Every structure is written in structure tokens, then in C-alpha cells.
Amino acid sequence: MNLFDNFKDPQLCKTLLARIHAELDGELRFMEVCGTHTVSIFRSGVRSLLSDKVVHLSGPGCPVCVTHDSEVAAFLELAGKNAIITTFGDLMRVPGPEKKTLKSAQAEGARVKVVYSPFDALKIAQDNPHDKVVFLGVGFETTAPAIAATVKVAREQGIGNFSVLCFHKLVPPALDALVGDPELQVQAFLLPGHVSAIIGVEPYRFLASKHGLPAVVAGFEPVDILQALYMFVTMRNEGKVEVVNAYTRVVSDEGNPKAVSIMNEVFSSCDALWRGIGLIPGSGLTIRDEYADYDAMRVFDMKLHDVPEIKGCRCGDVLKGKMSPEKCPLFGKACTPASPVGPCMVSTEGSCAAYYKYRI
Ligand code: SF4
């Protein structure tokens, strides 16, 4: 038996489920804000075992899904310039204006390369000194430190033909914006393990102190998820409202100070656009002036432009937890993983893709 088997133990899961259902008074509406949790909750079967009184809402935890239409348009604009575009693979099929994607741009001749790390992108820049090489920086606090480290290495090694199109987003300001929405009616947050490994627990304290909402940092195995749900139930029954770290085998309360320090050295916070939510103050990262030479927006003199939203797609409502993917008129008909209309069906961590894979 390895360590992870304990976190999948069927008997432990049954016990936790029985306690949740026996001790829950009223309804528990919890939101997860991590694409990996979205998938884990379905894949493990946890969701199918929860009673109707435990309402699962998927929030804006899929980095590709929350990337705004105007940011996708910027990727495509960049692909039309004389540059090598490097990206993680999950952005390739995200539709932009006129249903164009990086994949279709690549088919039409744009130099778009999928990489597994921003350091692979830096290597491409080293190998192609006469080309400008851009890495598309999306994702939350989880990926931002590695990309900041890549920019630092580029500076240290004098690699001047590398830059980053930086559309990173920060989770805590998005949660603050979400809970301010009176229609949402979320009662508890299942907090993202990966992001928390970087930022720790402190940045979420406002959920309890300002909004009176309990929150638990949880791992991704079924016992982790059920344990977090049981903690919500016991906190409610005991009249407590706390932000708790239940993923201590990975997340320390302080997070990873070194990663945060690298991130803060290269990036500063800025207002950012989120798909379906709009502009959230202080919820994005931009490249500091000291590293302006590595900022693709400045290198290519680009600006974000208003672009029409994808017709018929309800990703915005899905990302805000206001609508279940199955309620989208296009779900499973015009929109499937093989032929996605919106980003929530493109990304494997998207809510629509998870619903499609595990519910159909
Ligand atoms: Fe958008 Fe497709 Fe999801 Fe509907 S099912 S919200 S069209 S991604």
C-alpha cells in the first residue's frame, strides 16, 4: 500500500460520507476553484455519492477557461506577426474571434510550438537567435513563479529575443469578487491545493473575516475532498467560520516564500479581465518595468481590444457557478470535446469537459 492508497480508502470514504449526510443540517453549497478538483470530484465518483443537500458549484479554477476573449485575440494577433509563439498545449484549441484558434493559425503557417515548460521556450529562443520567441503566460499563482524564473534566467544569460505575453491571474481577488455577487449564494470554498502550495493560507483569511465564509485548502484524493466537506459540516454545527489548511502534506501555511519572491521580483499586480466575470481589480500579473524588454505587449507594441464573446457559449455563467454546464443549450450537441464551442469544453480541467466526460 502506498501513501496515496490511504487517501482513496473506500471504508474511510464511506465513513466520511455517512457523517456528512448524518450531521449536515440544511443545504451545503460549496464551490471549488481548481480545475484539478473539478476533475477529481467527478472521476473519483464523489459527486455521484453526495446527497442533493450537498450542492457542488464549479468556480473559475481552470486557467485556460478564465482567459478572456480579448486575451485569446491577442494570442492570435501575435501568431500573425513574425515571431515564434510557444505555449502550453491546452491553449491550442481555445476559440478566439471568428472561431480561429492557435491550432488553425498554425495550420495556416504561423510558427506556433507546444512546450512543456517555459524553459523549453527559452531554449527555442537560444536556438533561433534571429527570431523573436514569445511564451504565452497564462495560469494562476501555480505557474507564474516558473515563468518569472525563466524571465530572470533570460536576463542573466543575455537572451534578448525572448519575451512573455503575460496574462497570469490571481485567485484570492477573484474569490473576493465572486462572493460579492448576491446571486451566487456560496456557503463554503474548497480552496486549490496547487495555488496554495505557492501562496499559503494567509491570502484567503478574508473569506472568513470579511465574508463570514469557511474555506478549506484540500488535496485531490477522494478522502481529501470528503474530509474538507466534513470540516464544513462540523464548522457549521460548532458555529465556527475558519480558513483551514487540510492539505498539510503539500501546503505549508506560509506557502513557498522563494517562489513568491521570484514572482514578485518579475511581476506586479494589475487589474485583469476574466472570462464571464469582467475586470477584477488587482487580480492579474504584469511584467515590471525593470523587465520591460521581456514583456511581449511592449516588445510588439500591443494593446487588448474589445472582441465579441463567443456566440451562444455560457462559459461565463458556468465559471461563476451560476449555471451547470448541462443547462447550456449547446452542451453535448453543438459543443463537445471533439468540437468545442467554448474554452470550458476545450480544457481537460474545464467544467463542461468534466461534465461531458463523466456524466455522459
Ligand atoms: Fe460554452 Fe460549450 Fe460549455 Fe456551453 S457547453 S458553456 S458552449 S463550453
From TrEMBL:
User: What InterPro entries does the entry give?
Assistant: Hyd_form_HypD, HypD_1, HypD_2_sf
GO MF annotations in UniProt: 4 iron, 4 sulfur cluster binding; carbon monoxide binding; iron ion binding
What keywords does the record list, in alphabetical order? Iron, Metal-binding
Q: Does the keyword Transmembrane helix apply?
A: no
| Gene3D superfamilies referenced in this protein's UniProt entry, alphabetically | 6.10.20.100, HypD, alpha/beta domain 2
Annotated GO biological processes are: protein maturation
Q: Which Pfam families match?
A: HypD
Please indicate if the UniProt record lists Metal-binding as a keyword.
Answer: yes
Describe the family membership recorded for this protein in Swiss-Prot or TrEMBL.
Belongs to the HypD family.
The cross-references to NCBIfam families, in alphabetical order and at most eight, read:
hypD
Give the protein name, as stated in the record.
Answer: Hydrogenase expression/formation protein HypD
